[in-house]
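Annotated sample (chain length 236).
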Amino acid sequence: MNLTTRNLGSVLKWILRKTLRVFLYFLAFILLYLIIGFILSRISTSKELSKDQTIEIFVLFNGVHTDVVMPYTNKVKNWKRTFPSSNTRGTNTDFNWVAVGWGDKGFYLDTPTWGDLTFKTATKAAFGLSTAAVHATLYKNMGESETAKSIRISKEQYKLLVKYIDAHVRKSKLGLSQNISTNAVYGDDDAFYESRGIYSMFHTCNTWANGALKACKQRACLWTWNSSSILRLHEK
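Output written by the structure step:
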């Protein structure tokens, strides 16, 4: 009996040591992730200067997420075909701007508030076990504010931005964007679409938006997972 008790105690101590070791490894990993993220977000890429800065875009922040805002239609790209207002639940069709974001599909559709976040959704998102979605919001007006920063780019730079964003929109065999039928929309003027790419803690919604700025050769972080680092670069 005493031998069994001692054996059981040894097993429990072994389990406790292993659990503590795993926990410490996890904390060390998170700390390293945050430190590297902080350093890389403080290193910025340079902006390509151009005389032809005729197109205005915006980066839009909500405190957690970053969207890229573009003209709804111009001579370079007609986003009305990709993100038609008919896919929104509203009746308004008079829009001039489209804000595009990218992120984990589970977060977008199953987590309307932080209170709805589950361990399963968070784990799948963090480790790239879920699919992604594109979120498009239509606006009548858009202007400079604390949460919307204006950037003027050239026609050629805008073409690069369009290529980057369009490549993340999953298309049907007919070349059409695939609207996601859901009640998880945030308002009357937004919709979700199937997307290419995989969300993870190394490629977040803000990493994607930062990549959009890199694609059109604007100031961006070398790498970042958060929106505040991008906002810092474009505050005037």
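Annotation: The chain has one domain: 44-234.
Annotation: Residues 44-234 form one domain.
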